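I hope you will forgive my troubling you with a question about protein structure. The matter concerns a single protein, recorded as an amino acid sequence and a row of backbone structure tokens. Please examine both parts with care and let me know of anything in them that strikes you as inconsistent. Here, with my thanks, is the record as I have it:
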Amino acid sequence: MLEIVGLTKRYKNSNFYSVKDLNLTLKEGEIFGFLGKNGAGKSTTIKCLTGILPFDEGTIKVCGYDIQKNPIEAKLNIGYVPDNHAVYENLTGREYVNYMGNIYRVPKELIEERIEKFANLFSMSHAIDNQIRSYSHGMKQKICIIAALIHNPKFWVLDEPLMGLDPQSTFEIREYMKEHKKQGNCVFFSSHNIDMVEKLCDRVAIMNRGQLMEIIDVKKFMKESDVPLETYFLNMTKESKAKVIKFEDKKEKRERLKAEKAKVKQQKAEKAKEEKTQKEIANKIKKEEERKIKEQKNQIKKQTLAEIKTLKTASKSKSQALDEEYSKRVQEQLNILKSKMNSTLVENDSAQKAKESEDDSN
């Protein structure tokens, strides 16, 4: 419905921006509140998006039409209610609304039909044919609203619409805002009435010193926040929350950009230096770890070789002991065998001698 990208506006002879780099998107079927203290940039933004004021930078699209490239198409979708009741006071209410309907290319029969509808809706039937100069503040506000709605705009914009209105008029306008939303249209209005914003809006934007501070989903905020919207608004619009953005001429901008470029260059150099230092530290740590690992490997190798040598020595000693034990046992067996053989020889020799003696006797 509305798309604002990078909106920047500075009034002539002012050293400060009224609106700086504003980005905002509004949807169909919502009521959007625009909050901020006096001088926050609300009215300036509204006058830019309605095509009343030119702006320095950015783009504004209403229902897909660029307000600068396609101003007629964009404005045919806008119904604007200003904060100053700028009307032709010599005309009657009916004449003024007819005039506005003709500007917006509304067929005559529809104009008459809608005049009757809105005159009844906003309790203006008794005064619709009187000169506007005879109207009260509230009646002038109502006739501006009727004129803004005569072409059934998709995007209804109101700048402080309820300021100075009596409770009945306030109620009537609020109710039609809801009705306009139900028809799939978008209502965008600025206000200082936080209580009404809480009850009426789907979302709100908070402005401070020409800068968008935050966009709030009202229902979600009311459900989750520990503080009222008014308290939150007052905190967000403190002077300390947003700096005044000073305008720069071409020379100042060049110097600032040069300084920023130098700062970025310095930051890159410092980052590169830091990365180099970190890399050197990492390489040093890596080498130290590699050295420790190599040392551990060598130590393990030495220890393993020593263990193998010990095992070999132990094995050799054991082998020698076994050989000695074997030789000893063999020798013992040989001695036993030798002893037995000697005994046998002795016995044989004795037997031979006995036989010889026996033979000699015979």
Summary: The mean pLDDT is 86. The longest strand covers residues 2-9. The beta strands are 2-9, 19-26, 30-36, 57-62, 65-66, 78-81, 155-159, 186-190, 203-208, 211-217. The first helix runs from residue 42 to 49.
